Amino acid sequence: MKNTDKKIAVFSNYKPQSKEVCQLLIKKLRQNRFILTDKNPDIVISVGGDGMLLSVFHKYENQLDKVRFVGVHTGHLGFYTDYRDFEIDKLIENLKLDTGAQVSYPILNVRIFLEDGSVKSKLALNEATIKRSDRTMVADVMINHVAFERFRGDGISVSTPTGSTAYNKSLGGAVLHPTIEALQIAEVASLNNRVYRTLGSSIIVPKKDKIEIFPTRNDQHTISVDNRTYTFKHIAKVEFQIDNHKIQFVASPSHTSFWNRVKDAFIGEVDDEI
Ligand code: NAP
Ligand code: MN
After folding, report:
1. Where does this protein hold NAD(+) (predicted)?
2. Predicted pLDDT at 256
3. If you take atom 7 of ligand 1, which residue's CA is the nearest one?
4. Nearest CA, atom 31, ligand 1
């Protein structure tokens, strides 16, 4: 495919710095005769942070087979961003040389079964978290058809490998390398005493295993999927599984390793003077 046949969509967040980078990027893409369009693009470029990439992922979540993403981060390095704002020329060069190669990561499929028989389906790039709207959530957790535990607490989060560094990490979950196709269940403030018991640690579940959560107090629950929150009444159960689709990123010759991203985000430079 020649550049002139390659359709590219560019989005940025509201930050002036991101908008500026976005304008410059658009100008350079035009100069190099790429087609700029939001409609059925081959490549979607997100300018901003990981939060912005989450937004554009959901915008094109029905076209995951066709679309490849590129993340440009204004500021520090992100988990879904391969380029920094000062690397626009490098990005253009790589797009010109692009052969269609991609790096892909697992995503999460969440299905919400309501008591009236209807089923809602959502995709998550980071995680889905179920909480009871008010009061303590009580829910039975089933892993691969084993009635595992009765959970009492604020809620339960199920994250993807790339989402493991987001909310999951704040919940004390492990950081998972994205080549490990697994989901992670993390507890949100579980109640543990002589009467109530949950495992306490987070659990890493392999690709084929299904996670099911059955809320027992069936009034109103919220389910947060990445950056959006939905409210449901009368949920019968919620199912979590790795989706058949993956998110694809344009492979970059200087693709930053996952451990470099983890180090850059959470550790920074190590001072060896001390
Ligand atoms: P936000 O509340 O504006 O920002 C959440 C922060 O998480 C941002 O700094 C974002 O990075 C970062 N982030 C997003 N995905 C990440 C990932 N995969 N690994 C490491 N850091 C990541 O919300 P948002 O930007 O719309 O993002 C929604 C996400 O926020 C949710 O999916 C959830 O994971 C996370 N969240 C975390 C907590 C918590 O830690 N207590 C609570 C609620 C939600 P950028 O600055 O690069 O955008
Ligand atoms: Mn940020």
Report:
1. 50-51, 126-127, 152, 154, 165-170, 189
2. 82
3. 166
4. 226
pTM, entire model: 0.96
- Cα–Cα distance measured from residue 235 to residue 138, given in angstroms and rounded to the nearest whole number: 12
Cα–Cα distance for residue pair 19/27, rounded to 1 Å: 12
Q: Is the CB of 173 under 6 A from ligand 1?
A: no
CA atoms within 13 Å, Cβ hemisphere of 53 = 24
| Token representation of residue 158 | 């199920």
Please tell me whether 170 is known to bind a ligand.
yes
Predicted pLDDT at 77: 80
pLDDT of residue 76: 79
Phi, psi of 258 (to 5 degrees): -60, -40
CA gap 266, 12 in Å, rounded = 24
Among 58-67, 203-212, 258-267, the least confident range: 258-267
Residues 199, 86: Cα–Cα separation, whole Å = 46
